[in-house]
Specification:
Layout (H helix, E strand, L loop, with lengths): L1 H8 L3 E3 L7 E3 L4 H14 L6 E3 H6 L13 H13 L3 E4 L10 E4 L1
Antiparallel strand pairs: 1-2, 3-5, 4-5
Helix pairs in contact: 2-4
């Protein structure tokens, strides 16, 4: 448990529920992923455009990026970081997995 607590302090563990019986261990923090995604968006001139989670997760343009194919929960968590920083806005989709949800980058 001490290892997980140390990783949690560095932002590499998120617990599911208050009982701490299950956690997600991340090799990059959501903030690190968010910065990487935003840097890629900015370098491609995609600010003030809307794309779908599918395009970021599995799109041809994203192929070869470290975030390509990442778990959708982590992608959504990282995009939430950008939203809280005022760099993006999430738009809900209609699919159960949110793959058609939109994200506008500022």
């Amino acid at each position: 448990m001490m290892v997980l607590d140390a990783l949690e302090q560095k932002g590499h563990v998120e617990w599911e529920g208050k009982r701490k019986s299950r956690c997600f261990v991340m090799w990059r923090t959501p903030e690190e992923w968010a910065a990487m995604i935003y840097q890629w968006i900015s370098s491609r001139g995609m600010n003030n455009t809307v794309c779908t989670l599918f395009e970021l997760h599995s799109g041809d343009d994203a192929e070869g990026q470290d975030f390509y194919g990442m778990d959708l929960w982590m992608l959504k968590r990282s995009l939430t970081v950008l939203t809280s920083q005022g760099k993006a806005e999430l738009m809900p989709g209609s699919q159960p997995d949110d793959s058609d949800a939109g994200i506008k980058f500022f």
